[in-house]
Amino acid sequence: MTNASAYVRPTEQDEVAAAGSELIGGPQGRRALSGLPGTWWTPLRVIALAAIGMYALGMVQKLPCYDGSWFSGQTAQYVHACYSDIPHLYNGRGFADGLVPYFQRIPDDVSGGMDYLEYPVLTGAFMWLAGKLTFGAGGIQREEQLYWLVNAGMLMVCAVVLVVCVARTHRNRPWDGLLVALAPTLALTATINWDLLAVALTAAGMLLWSRERTLASGVLLGLATAAKLYPGLLLGALLVLCWRAGTWRAFGRALGGAAGAWAVVNVPVMLFAWDGWSKFYRFSQERPVDFGSVWLIIQQRTGHSFEGANTYATLLMAVGCAAIAALAFYAPRRPRFAQLAFLVIALFILTNKVYSPQYVLWLIPLAVLARPKWRDFLIWQGCEALYFLGIWMYLAYTGSGDKHQGLPAEGYQVVILIHLLGTLYLCAVIVRDALLPEHDPVRRDGSDDPGGGVLDRAPDVFALSRHPLHERQADAGGAEGAGAPVKWGARPR
């Protein structure tokens, strides 16, 4: 257990955090009692309460839609920027009729052309459970409202799990979790869709990896992948890092746990409801270029449809992953797990043919673990908050008929570019931290990879270049001399 006096206080190292703390009395002093035995106001409790408060504000922001805009036509819910998929899919995916997702086809009169639920199995189970808890409301509109409230309550639990896991992943930096708790886009997008389930499971998996519980970490990452596809990409980041460190057994346990957990959730549905199970994958493949992507800008500017967007996106993703792998093998110090995790998920988002506003939730915990600097985080969050408003104003413009009230296509393209540039900016500073470790705020106190588990302080066994740090490791005995002291501390395996 980390002593409270060993905690990294952001107000001592981060000028933006120090300036912001003036609103609540100034930077934390050396004699502050927070985190000491017998003190109720521990960092975890403060962060959890802050997350609940921000989450509640996000629910309040949806109040105009809850009071009627979800049901009075499309434009009102966009003008108030309070749209959510949740109430619309209660009836639109058959939950109002008690249908079992994947096993029962959705009636044509409510589905809008979607014959089966287009979500991964664990998310579908989450939606179905919330539907079972929605009963006796009296009228379809009231049931949709209650369905949103039930989901919001369940997702709030996911939000608390998320911030607690992030706060505990780096033992000596619990206050970094406050960045997640206070993230504006967490409040704004948490109840648009069900992404928080996968995000919370991913954060829990990363926490367990940091505690060297590799099999359990893999199980949670597998469950997260059964809820949303993107967490599976984190295994690619672990592959190259474990390759460089030679920790193949740890990677194998994580991979086996992930594959097993994913199979336990998916195989029964695959065997008995193939058409329903495969709908998510078919829909992802067949979906055309959509909101928020760079492909939409090109499509709107050129007037040509991108029927080959899947191919282009896949090629760019492959090239980008190769570049990230090269970074992992070339960097003078092995990049931290969170750094590579952020880069690979950001690459997926940047190259994808659609960017829904709630996808920002995927990156928030990774951004905090990879680059816990308030200035950079808030710059990125500002770009994402602007995109959140921009997409709703664009939909209001396209849905208002001849009135054209909202943001035209040209304005929406600018907003997409701002979102893309904000994400690229954060990618750039993280790449710089990997190439110049002295700029990494996590490593400033002499840490190596506090979220890396078996990777933390492990000596390298493979790298693409010979840096002075590698030479010092070789002089100390390399992998065989893992117990020999080096600057950043190789530890016995």
TrEMBL record:
<keyword id="KW-0812">Transmembrane</keyword>
<feature type="transmembrane region" description="Helical">
    <location>
        <begin position="179"/>
        <end position="209"/>
    </location>
</feature>
<feature type="transmembrane region" description="Helical">
    <location>
        <begin position="337"/>
        <end position="357"/>
    </location>
</feature>
<dbReference type="Pfam" id="PF09594">
    <property type="entry name" value="GT87"/>
</dbReference>
<keyword id="KW-1133">Transmembrane helix</keyword>
<feature type="region of interest" description="Disordered">
    <location>
        <begin position="470"/>
        <end position="493"/>
    </location>
</feature>
<feature type="transmembrane region" description="Helical">
    <location>
        <begin position="409"/>
        <end position="431"/>
    </location>
</feature>
<feature type="transmembrane region" description="Helical">
    <location>
        <begin position="40"/>
        <end position="60"/>
    </location>
</feature>
<keyword id="KW-0808">Transferase</keyword>
<feature type="transmembrane region" description="Helical">
    <location>
        <begin position="377"/>
        <end position="397"/>
    </location>
</feature>
<dbReference type="InterPro" id="IPR018584">
    <property type="entry name" value="GT87"/>
</dbReference>
<feature type="transmembrane region" description="Helical">
    <location>
        <begin position="146"/>
        <end position="167"/>
    </location>
</feature>
<feature type="transmembrane region" description="Helical">
    <location>
        <begin position="215"/>
        <end position="242"/>
    </location>
</feature>
<keyword id="KW-1003">Cell membrane</keyword>
<comment type="similarity">
    <text>Belongs to the glycosyltransferase 87 family.</text>
</comment>
<dbReference type="InterPro" id="IPR016570">
    <property type="entry name" value="UCP010361"/>
</dbReference>
<feature type="transmembrane region" description="Helical">
    <location>
        <begin position="311"/>
        <end position="330"/>
    </location>
</feature>
<feature type="transmembrane region" description="Helical">
    <location>
        <begin position="254"/>
        <end position="274"/>
    </location>
</feature>
<protein>
    <submittedName>
        <fullName>Glycosyltransferase 87 family protein</fullName>
    </submittedName>
</protein>
<keyword id="KW-0472">Membrane</keyword>
